[in-house]
UniProtKB/TrEMBL annotation:
Transmembrane segment boundaries: none
Residues covered by the Protein kinase domain: 1-244
Keyword match Transferase: yes
Keywords: ATP-binding, Kinase, Nucleotide-binding, Transferase
InterPro entries membership: Kinase-like_dom_sf, Prot_kinase_dom, Ser/Thr_kinase_AS
Organism domain of life: Bacteria
PROSITE patterns assigned to the protein according to its UniProt record, in alphabetical order: PROTEIN_KINASE_DOM, PROTEIN_KINASE_ST
Stated name of the protein: Protein kinase domain-containing protein
Region ranges (Disordered): 275-345
Length: 359
C-alpha cells in the first residue's frame, strides 16, 4: 500500500508516517481500506499496539502517523540472527496474546499477523500495521468475495477460502504460525509448488502444518492453535496462560522473563534519533529541497530522515525515491493542490448514519 518513513513533529515527537503510494490513490478500494485502518487504530489501545498519532486518509498523499517504536521486526531478528529459545518465544507469545485480546475486545481483528508486523521494542513485542483490520460487526466489506488479501504463509484456512465469518480464531492461527517461525525459522507449508500449491495445502484439512523442530513442550498448544476448524482453536486467554506456564517452567518469574525479552531482543542500533539540526523542526523541509537549499547542506542524512523506517514486503512495484517528509503532519497554509475525490467517504458516512438512528 505504501512506504513508512521516520517523521518528526513540530514538538520533536518521533513518529512512523505511512504514506500511500500515489499511483494507488485512484483506486477507491485502497482509499477505503486506508480510511478503515485509521478508524481501527482509533479504537485500539494497550502497550502491545503502536498508538495512532494523527492521520489524513483523504489527503494527497493520504497518510497516517503512529507511535515510533524502535527495534527490529521479528522477521528481521530471526533472519539476521537465529531462532529464539523456547522460554523467550513463549513469553513473547503470551505478551502478544494479551495485546491481541485487547484488540478483539475493541471489536477488531488484526487479520495480518506475521513476523514482519511485530516489532521487538525495548519493552517487548509491539503489533503494527492494522491496514487489513476490519470491524467484526460491520456489514459492508472492502474485499471482493474470493480475493486473497494478506501474507499466505500466515493466513488461516478460512481466510484463504475468503469466508466472510472470520473471528478471533484467524488471528490465533496467525499468532501460532508466527511463533513457529520464531522458534524454527521455518514456515508451516512448502512453497515449492508456487502460490497455488501453497494455498491448496493450507485449505486441505488432510495436509498438516510442518511442526518439525518445534519443542515438544509447546507443540501440542501450537498444533491446537493451527487447527483447521477455527472453533477448535483455544481462546487467547487460554493461549496466554499456557504460554506463561511454559515461559516460567524453569523457575524464572514472569517479571524477570519480561525483562529478559526486552534486554535480549531489542536492537538499539536500529533506533533513529532526531538529528541535532532538527532539534527545532522547521515547518516543511521539502521546500528547501525543491529550492536547491536541501541535501547535505542542512546536515540531515538519508540514514536518519527520508527513508523507510521498516522495509515492507516486496510488492513488485518500485517505491518512490527517498524524500524528506514534512515535519508537520498538517499543512498550516492553504494549498493549491487538486482537491481529493471524497465522494466515496460521503456515501460511507451516509450509510453509517442511516444504520445508527441515535447519531
Amino acid at each position: 500500500m505504501g512506504d513508512v518513513y521516520f517523521g518528526v513533529s513540530p514538538t520533536a515527537d518521533r513518529v512512523a508516517v505511512k504514506v500511500i503510494r500515489r499511483h494507488l490513490l485512484a483506486d477507491s478500494t485502497v482509499r477505503q481500506r486506508f480510511a478503515a485502518e485509521v478508524e481501527s487504530l482509533q479504537l485500539v489501545w494497550g502497550s502491545r499496539v503502536a498508538r495512532l498519532e494523527a492521520a489524513d486518509p483523504i489527503g494527497d498523499p493520504a497518510w497516517l502517523a503512529v507511535e515510533y517504536v524502535p527495534g527490529s521486526t521479528l522477521m528481521e531478528y530471526v533472519e539476521q540472527r537465529d531462532p529464539l529459545p523456547l522460554p523467550l518465544v513463549a513469553m513473547i507469545g503470551a505478551m502478544l496474546a494479551d495485546g491481541l485480546d485487547r484488540v478483539h475486545q475493541a471489536g477488531l481483528l488484526h487479520r495480518d499477523l506475521k513476523p514482519q508486523n511485530i516489532i521487538l521494542g525495548r519493552d517487548g513485542p509491539v503489533l503494527i500495521d492494522f491496514g487489513l483490520a476490519v470491524l467484526t460487526e460491520r456489514d459492508d466489506y472492502l474485499t471482493d468475495p474470493g480475493a486473497v488479501v494478506g501474507t499466505p504463509h500466515y493466513m488461516s484456512p478460512e481466510r484463504v477460502k475468503g469466508e466472510r465469518d472470520q473471528g478471533a480464531g484467524s488471528d490465533i492461527y496467525g499468532l501460532a504460525a508466527t511463533l513457529v517461525f520464531a522458534l524454527t525459522g521455518q514456515k508451516l507449508y512448502s512453497a515449492a509448488g508456487g502460490l497455488p500449491g501453497l494455498l491448496l495445502q493450507i485449505v486441505d484439512p488432510d495436509v498438516l502444518p510442518n511442526l518439525s523442530g518445534v519443542p515438544g513442550e509447546v507443540a501440542p498448544l501450537l498444533g491446537a492453535m493451527l487447527a483447521h476448524d477455527p472453533t477448535a482453536r483455544p481462546s487467547l486467554p487460554v493461549v496466554r496462560t499456557r504460554l506463561l506456564a511454559i515461559a516460567t517452567s524453569g523457575g524464572v518469574p514472569v517479571i524477570e522473563m519480561r525483562r529478559r525479552v526486552g534486554e535480549l531482543t531489542f536492537d538499539g542500533s536500529t533506533e533513529i534519533m532526531v538529528p541535532p539540526e532538527f532539534a527545532d523542526p522547521i515547518q516543511n523541509p521539502e521546500e528547501d529541497v525543491a529550492a536547491g537549499g536541501g541535501g547535505s547542506d542542512d546536515g540531515a542524512s538519508d540514514d536518519d530522515i527520508g527513508r523507510p523506517a521498516n522495509d515492507g514486503p516486496n510488492t513488485g512495484v518500485d517505491p518512490d525515491p527517498p524524500r524528506r517528509l514534512p515535519t508537520t503532519l498538517v499543512d498550516p497554509e492553504p494549498s493549491d493542490r487538486p482537491r481529493a475525490e471524497v465522494g466515496w467517504l460521503t456515501d460511507r458516512l451516509r450509510q453509517q448514519y442511516a444504520r445508527r438512528g441515535t447519531l
